[in-house]
Amino acid sequence: MEKNLIILLSCCLLHFASAQLRVGFYSSTCPRAETIIRQLVQKRFGTDRSITAALLRMHFHDCFVRGCDASILIDSTKSTSSEKDAGPNLTVRGYELIDEIKKALEAACPSTVSCADIITVATRDAVDLAGGSHYKVPTGRRDGLVSDSAEVNLPGPSLSVPEALPFFRAKGLTLNDMVTLLGAHTVGVAHCGFFQDRLSNFQGTGKPDQTMNPALAARLLRTCGTASRPLNRDPTVFLDQNTSFTFDNQFYNQLRSKKGILQIDQQLALDRSSAPIVSSFASNPNAFQQNFASAMIKMANIQVLGGKAGEIRKNCRVFNPKSRRGF
Ligand code: HEM
Ligand SMILES: *[C@@H]1O[C@H](CO)[C@@H](O)[C@H](O)[C@H]1NC(C)=O
Ligand SMILES: CC(=O)N[C@H]1CO[C@H](CO)[C@@H](O)[C@@H]1O
Q1: Which of these is catalytic: 15, 61, 134, 191?
Q2: CA atoms lying within 13 Å on the CB side of residue 136
Q3: Domain 161-298 class?
């Protein structure tokens, strides 16, 4: 009886939380919110097309740690270490664009638009600007009150498909969602340190990873150096070696030609479970764009705070003063 009640409650509370989100949440409280976000993303994109990749990665890291609650934006203090300071976040970029958008929104409608929604809407716009599809994204997320580097547990680049999948399943996402969302690697870069092991003496074989095109491996080795003798500064290479700044399905074509940079990316084309999805996206650009829009909406719904939970931060980098955080 009691157990049933708990199941009933948790079902409906969860449902309630996500039911708070709706397309056009700010249409009466801050009608220009989405326009203001779009204009600032567009301005930045005009001088820096890499902003699409920066926002996509920020959004993913935010949503996979404690849900899409802008916990990734919190700066560490002398006594606390926030999500930003966890190893995998090392190279997340774009924080200053979020600050700029927040400043403009606070001027237009103070304490109304959450930082979590800014990340979500800005990412949607940046994908569209880079050639992806435009989709309507529900808003109404609230900002979280906790950000702890110890909670960051993101999948690493050297995983197999069956090893990576549980990270997605734990967030309510499917294999299809995972293969689709990794399509975000159609834009952006990776530092050599994340794939250097593939370039020479892969897993002690004395050879490069045989699943990588040999000409590509040789070229990357010149850029990166070997794992035992890496080049000084950790250089970056494009994750999609063909159309590096365009949000298209070329990433999947690259995987089919053994030109994936990260091991997990290449594995998508090789594992029996994911290979058919890669093939279908490689041959059908519209299928990829449509699946990507739905998978992004799903990712943007992970463990969101609605109603009166959390807060609307005034500065995305710090919790509002005086809010109580359970200690
Ligand atoms: C198994 C899951 C994933 C793994 C292991 C993974 C791993 C990585 C790694 C190692 C990098 C390179 C970071 C650097 O050197 O700075 C990277 C970059 C990137 N990731 Fe992922 N990723 C995953 C899923 C995702 C998802 C779901 C998204 C978004 C929907 C995403 C978006 C990006 C983007 C856009 C970049 C380029 C960032 C830039 O250019 O600044 N990744 N990823
Ligand atoms: C690169 O992308 C273009 C544009 O989508 C495509 O037509 C071409 O076949 C691709 N080239 C390679 C080598 O994959
Ligand atoms: C941008 C940022 O805050 N990077 C941090 C990520 O984590 C590393 C390692 O813990 C820190 O040294 C960086 O400052």
Answers
A1: 61
A2: 6
A3: mainly alpha
